[in-house]
Design goal:
binds NADP nicotinamide-adenine-dinucleotide phosphate; 11 strands; seven-stranded parallel β-sheet; alpha/beta
Length: 336
């Protein structure tokens, strides 16, 4: 269906993998970014695809009408919208997390509605918009794409709340805004939302040095450097970034995915204790540093990653492969 695709957040961890998955299928890509410097690095790193890859500069989503979006959507058949702030290092959660996440969705959908070419928009939501932190097993239950985080908007923007809670609110209210937008405006495109949990794996976006790894991978590197005690994961679910990229591209291309909300997640559960074991066994030079700690793996509830895999036609990496591939790359980034 789509032969020319706009990817927002294209210089980010997940976005850059989506760019590569599209390019590998011969699909023309326009990336959107606030930084043309990062755009140049993306293009320079892919000389074989210079005829298929271009970038446009867009404004920060902290402003209500970020510049450049109308130019960004011109002529594309599909949009994969991954751009959204993902950091827990904030001073003002509402300004830095919640507002830009929502503004970004509205701005991209408004721009898409003004063209006739866009047929589908895929948005990267998060398991954070699905998870109810107060719901506990037993009895055992399984989250699916039908579940929503019950957090209120007021709770997410409360200045007393943590960045973790505000991030959950940013993802919930940005995604909800997108579904409501479709109901209200019935535009000429449909929507697919992907709600992945923690995403790990090797990076293909510009990263200056290992200290600048994205939020989720930075946790694994922290363990490799000897975090003591180990961090405790809030949920036992994860996905490899390469699998998530294929899920996004297939969500854009497969006719039947329109209007669907998926929770792509690997079948294997993870803990940072398991990650520590994989790092210690796989990297003898790091094994003295890595803290070994048995962490309880929460088995009291599940997350349906099967529906996404079967309907969007992709397989899951093992946690061991994902951790080893990221740490091998992080070690090389660390010594350069
Ligand atoms: N990593 C995970 O574990 C995980 C799990 C579930 C869902 N997600 C979601 O996946 C998406 C991508 O995350 P990621 O891990 O790839 O993060 P990332 O590496 O930080 O990339 C996010 C991109 O979003 C853009 N962005 C951030 N804040 C922005 C703002 N205020 N205005 C405009 N653009 C902004 C940035 O692009 P430029 O700097 O180039 O403009 C950045 O490259 C996010 O929507 C995130 O919520 C991530």
């Amino acid at each position: 269906m789509s032969k020319f695709v706009l990817v927002t957040g294209a210089t980010g961890f997940i976005g850059a993998h989506i760019v590569d998955t599209l390019l590998a299928r011969g699909i023309r890509v326009r990336g959107a970014t606030r930084s043309l410097e990062k755009a140049d690095l993306m293009i320079q790193a892919r000389p074989q695809f210079s005829h298929l890859l271009e970038f446009v500069r867009i404004g920060d989503f902290e402003t209500q009408t970020p510049e450049g979006l109308e130019a960004a959507v011109q002529g594309v058949d599909g949009i994969i919208h991954t751009a959204s702030p993902f950091t827990y290092d904030t001073k003002n959660n509402e300004k830095e997390l919640v507002i830009p996440a929502i503004n970004g969705v509205v701005a991209i959908l408004d721009a898409a509605r003004k063209t006739s070419s866009v047929k589908r928009v895929v948005i990267t939501s998060s398991f954070a918009s699905v998870l109810d932190v107060n719901r506990k097993g037993p009895p055992y239950f399984t989250y699916t794409g039908a579940d929503w985080n019950p957090l209120t908007y007021e709770e997410s923007i409360d200045p007393a709340t943590s960045a973790v809670v505000a991030y959950r609110g940013s993802k919930k209210y940005a995604e909800l805004t997108a579904w409501n937008y479709i109901k209200e405006h019935t535009p000429g495109f449909d929507l697919v939302a992907l709600c992945p949990p923690m995403t790990f794996g090797p990076v293909v976006h510009p990263v200056e040095n290992v200290e600048r790894l994205n939020e989720s991978n930075a946790m694994l590197w922290k363990i490799a450097r000897g975090a003591d005690p180990l961090p405790v994961s809030r949920v036992p679910f994860w996905i490899d970034v390469r699998d998530l990229a294929v899920a996004h591209v297939n969500a854009l291309l497969l006719e039947g995915a329109g209007g669907r909300r998926y929770t792509p997640a690997a079948p294997e559960r993870f803990s940072y204790g398991i990650a520590a074991q994989i790092i210690a066994n796989g990297f003898p030079n790091l094994s003295d540093k890595v803290t070994q700690e048995d962490q309880i793996l929460d088995q009291s509830y599940g997350l349906d990653g099967e529906t996404a895999a079967s309907e969007l036609d992709f397989d899951y990496h093992s946690f061991e492969e994902t951790v080893k591939d990221l740490i091998a790359q992080a070690v090389s980034l660390n010594t350069v």
